[in-house]
Fold Neprosin PEP catalytic domain-containing protein.
Amino acid sequence: MASSHFRVLPIIAIFVCFLLASLTSPAHALPAANNTLRPRHELAKLRRIRAHLRKLNKPPVKTIQGPDGDLIDCIPVHLQPAFDHPKLKGQKPVDPPERPKGLLPLGDPELAESFQSWSSSGESCPEGTVPIRRTTEADVLRASSVRRFGKKPAAARVRRDSTSNGHEHAVGYVTGEQYYGAKASLNVWAPKVTTPSEFSLSQIWMISGTFGRDLNTIEAGWQVSPELYGDNRPRFFTYWTTDAYQATGCYNLLCSGFVQTNRRVAIGAAISPISSNNGRQFDISLLVWKDPKHGHWWLEFGPGLLVGYWPSFLFSRLAQQSSMVQFGGEIVNTGRWGAHTSTQMGSGHFAGEGFGKASYFRNLQVVDWDNNLVPVRNLRVLADHPNCYDIKGGINSGWGNYFYYGGPGRNVRCS
């Protein structure tokens, strides 16, 4: 993703801390003195940021501070950002859908919630609320603009050919049929991201449409994005778009779209624990599927923990079904100083290094037209730049369809 940082003129640099402190006060008007010391466009930008934060950060019933510094606000379900959408105003979340046939029985939701740092203290949001990571002024200032905050760059970020647009992939994919969902277990690491304007992620893509402006995607997984979150922790995330990332969609709950129904999972919060080199391995299991009755796309984490849904009216092509499913990793290579980035994908190790070193996806499945969860057929694997990041697939009785993927980026073969 493109990045720009908030800059101030040298003559007024000493006033930055004072002005940012004033933004946290309840007063809505900026001090008159600042109006004479700051360029008008900067004041206008800061006012837009404050207005955007008031829209995003709803009044909480309770706030929980995680050990990683995140503030998790417990927001009444009907006040979450999704219900700012004109088609959802005044409504409540719909009833849970019929789960795909072939799923394991529902597990203990108390076990599933332990994968996030903020819940490690034992605190939780009360019934009737959902946990939402609070957005700060610093979060928005790291974005290229207020309008583009929480959005991917306006270009197709789906692996479609070998040309490079700065985004590089190592993915497994299926196409040629109609898909109504996908499921996989994603190995979680904390890959090194070289610059704030780059990211590294691992996710499931549900895709429909051409690779033009009608591209529809639903995405879920984990990512390290210093620009979006301000740190290098792997975080649980979602994304959606209906116009190839032009104007619609966003990460997580940073616009009206995804409806959260769960009070135990905070989208955008850090994942813990994570895997270590030659040590214990951790993965998260994610399922995305289309409710056969109402057509909404639901997201489930782990043993039956429903996170929420993307309403069907958000989509054009995905209103029917998906025509392609992708699983795998993606990084951004800004190519600074004419050299390939050292941002890592997955664990930062190549696929051939295997378990305990390379990152993996396992138990790859899709949902068919009759709401059956079935193993993927005709899985293809490919990498845009195999000297930088590669992928190697397989199948066995324990992991079903799986693959290892990733790499270190810049090395003697990738420059």
